Every structure is written in structure tokens, then in C-alpha cells.
Amino acid sequence: MSKPLILVTNDDGITAPGLRTLVRCMKELGEVVVVAPDSPQSGMGHAITLDNTLYSKRVVIDPEAGAPKEYSCSGTPADCVKLALQELLDRRPDICVSGINHGSNASINVIYSGTMSAAIEAGIEGIPAIGFSLCDYSWEADFTPAEDAVKKIVAQALENGIPKGVVLNVNIPKTDKAGLKGIKVCRQARANWKEKFDKRTNPSGKDYYWLTGEFQLLDKGEDTDEWALSQGYISLVPTQFDLTAHFAIQDINTWNLHEH
Amino acid sequence: MSKPLILVTNDDGITAPGLRTLVRCMKELGEVVVVAPDSPQSGMGHAITLDNTLYSKRVVIDPEAGAPKEYSCSGTPADCVKLALQELLDRRPDICVSGINHGSNASINVIYSGTMSAAIEAGIEGIPAIGFSLCDYSWEADFTPAEDAVKKIVAQALENGIPKGVVLNVNIPKTDKAGLKGIKVCRQARANWKEKFDKRTNPSGKDYYWLTGEFQLLDKGEDTDEWALSQGYISLVPTQFDLTAHFAIQDINTWNLHEH
């Protein structure tokens, strides 16, 4: 049996330490091909490039023997996955992994996440997909404590398959190996960002803003990703791209929409 | 009682004809403030501006009496809503409407939609929100046949409230007034885009790609947005930003994740 083909991507860019960790882990599980943005794309959500040209080139990040095939791409994470599937890969990948993101994509952050948008793009194409994020925004973050868990989750996904229409959102707490308690399957916590705009004036006298904010956890449940992370667990949330709020259909069907 | 405050935004930019139609309709229902991108932002998904400055300025698009307060913003649709809520509006809006988009945001297009990301951003902040789209990509599209339905839906949302955690995704078929059959509450159809990259070579000999694609409807259900649109109905899908695939939690809890 041939080794599984693993497509690796991210949103922090092809040279990010989190991606290099993921590549190292995935090489133990299969044949790796990397297609990742040539520059950081954080906060891109599920953006795609419609009005601009896309460039892609073969790059060598790690010149040692057995290094994977790697391509950088001028587009967004979702563009990388589309380009990989249609143009760059010889065969359909067995799984797509995205990350490891420098920073949390738990709770409502999943909505803004380029890391998860790449995984969701693969999921839409019917390919099993997982986004990984470490709750540490630093470029020098230590990804090594999570390596065993990352390999375990991908190996289990390859063995069991991921349910159709579902993409996994895995977040890893910032802790050393001894602090990691295990993996918990969770639901997405309800939360939002309390924005604060930092208003400044540029040298020519024009006002501008920087977007800053504070994360507000509104959900006291002990079955959420935020709760698991706070207790030292890796959170695994099965995530879907059918956004229908089925529970609301009955309610809205009581509205007065049909008279003329 | 004071008139409801209606925040209007979009992703095609503040001068787009679809937004001008929405503004005209909303002026009949309340006090309108417009905060919209200064340039087209289609396909931006739920992008936010983290690494760049945001500019915003008061603009006058329509100099006639009773014209709404309008601001253009250099950011994405989600940025516009954040900036409106935190900096530009005097009070919390009663509803946020986004659109009318030039092009469909039905089915899987909701994932890539800047129009819907603006509405979802408002929804995350607890503000009732609706995204409107016309299934006609042309800049000269005729938005008038849909005006009555747009007003009816917003009036009903103001009267009944939208369930918590839900944002409405409304799509309007391309047809004349006589062809419009009514409004149907639907679920999101399963579909994807069959991408085709158009590979070209630039004048300096470097390869580049244009992203093109063909919409593939995979769902034969007669309760979907795509079905409703094909029959001449306006589709209304209640959409949620809790992406948890609750049905998959049991399945993934059978995986071997807990041994050491």
C-alpha cells in the first residue's frame, strides 16, 4: 500500500516555525507536499483571490534528503488549497492539514481564521481536513510539546475517516509537555471580541485606526473548547460548513412574509 | 418612539448600485447610517485588518435633503461593522443590513461572502442582521423588482426579532417583478465550485494563474436555497456562526485519542 499523501498548508506563511513543525510530524505519517502562502495571511478568513493574478513557485526550504515538495503561493490559504488540488498535486491527497497556527483559533476565532479556511476549503472538496493552532502568538512559540498529539490526531483521522461535511479545529494550550492533560472533543464556546480602535493621526494630519480588542468568553459551559484549553487539554471541535441554523427555520416560518 | 437605527454596509463598495437600492429601501423604515468599503471587497470572506491601518471618512454620495450619514472605510466589510459599532455610531443600531450584493451568496457561496461576513460580524455583536444578494453579477443589474420583499423582510425582522446566534442570508433570483413568486425559508444547499485555473505567462516569462470555476449543485432537495431560487422564489436561510458539528461529537469520541 502506498503511503498516504498529506497536503500541508497554513496562513502564517511557508517559512513559519509552526508549519515546519507540522511538516516534520507529517513526514512520519506519509508523503508530504507543502503549498503555503509566500507571506503571512492571518485574519484573512475565507478570502479568495478573484480580481488578481496568482503566482506559485517550487521552493526548497529544507535542502536535506527526503525533504518534501514545497510550493509557495501569492494567494490566500483558501487559494493555496484550490491551486494544490487543481494544478500542483499529481493525485488527490488523503488528508489536508493546516497550521500549526501561531495563535488560538478556538471559539469565535474560527470565523476569522485563515488556518481553518484552508482546512474548510479542503473539506468542501471532500478531502478530510484538520486545522491546528497553538495558543501562543509568538513567532518563537514552542511547538514541540504538542507533536505527539498532532501525530495521534492525524493518524486517527486517516484510520477512522472524518464524517462527511466536517472539518476538525484543533487548538493546543500554551504549556510544556508535563502540562498537557490529553485531548478533548468539544463544542465551540460562545464568545466575541470587545473591539477597541486605537485612533491616531498620521504625519500629514489624517486620522487612522488600529484594530485592537479583548477576547470576551461569554460561555460558562465545561464542554467547550475554551474550557478544555483552560484546563490544559487540547481541544478538538468538529466544525461544519453547512451554516444553516435548522432550529430557526420553524421560528422564521411564523413571520408574515407571504401576504401581498 | 424613535425610528429604528439601521446600519447599512456591503462588500461591493459604497458607490455600488445594490447598496444605493438598499439605502433607498431602508430610508422608508428608519434612520439610516452607511459605513461601507471605499473599494470592492468581493471574495474577502470574513477577513479583518490586523496588520494595517484603517482609514474612514465622512462622504456625501447623495446631496439631497434627508440623505443618510455615510462613511467610507479602507477596510473589509467586517472592519466596517466593527468600526461603525465602536467608533462611528452614536447608539447601537437596531438592525444591520448588508448588500444588496451583485451576485449570488446562496449555498456554499456564503463561506466566501464579504456581504454575509459583515452581517455575521454584526450578529456576533448581538445585533439582528441580514445579508441581501441578487443573483446577477452585473454592475447594471436591476434591483427594483426585489425592493418590496427587501422592505418586508427587514420590517418583519424588526417586528419579530431574529433568533439569537442567527443571521439571515437572503438571495433574490434574477427576474422581473412578475417572475418573483414570493419568499421561502430554506436550508443551505450542498454544492461546491469546480475550480479551473487559467494558466498564463506574463510579459517577463513568469507563469501566473487566474482563478475561474463552475458552480456544482450536488443537492437535489426541494427545501434548499438553490431550489427556491430556481423556481423564482427569494430564498431566506437562517445562518449561524456556531460552526460546531454537534452530530459528529459522538463519532469522534469513538477514536483512540486518550491512550498514552
UniProtKB/TrEMBL annotation, chains A, B:
Q: Which SUPFAM superfamilies does this UniProt record tie to the protein?
A: SurE-like (SSF64167)
GO cellular component labels: cytoplasm
Q: Where in the cell is it found?
A: Cytoplasm
So which cofactors does this thing need?
Answer: a divalent metal cation; Mg(2+)
What chemistry does it catalyse, as a reaction equation? a ribonucleoside 5'-phosphate + H2O = a ribonucleoside + phosphate
Q: Name one GO molecular function term.
A: 5'-nucleotidase activity
Q: Which UniProt keywords apply?
A: Cytoplasm, Hydrolase, Metal-binding, Nucleotide-binding
Per the UniProt entry, the Enzyme Commission number(s) are: 3.1.3.5
- UniProt-annotated binding residues for a divalent metal cation: D11, D12, S42, N101
Tell me the cofactor note. Answer: Binds 1 divalent metal cation per subunit.
**Survival protein SurE-like phosphatase/nucleotidase domain: residues covered:** 6-195
Q: Which family does it belong to?
A: Belongs to the SurE nucleotidase family.
Role summary: Nucleotidase that shows phosphatase activity on nucleoside 5'-monophosphates.
Against PANTHER family, the record matches this protein to: 5'-NUCLEOTIDASE SURE, PHOSPHATASE, PUTATIVE (AFU_ORTHOLOGUE AFUA_4G01070)-RELATED
Indicate what this protein is called per its UniProt record: 5'-nucleotidase SurE
Q: What taxonomic classification does the UniProt entry list for its organism? A: Bacteria, Pseudomonadati, Bacteroidota, Flavobacteriia, Flavobacteriales
Instruction: Write the gene name.
Output: surE
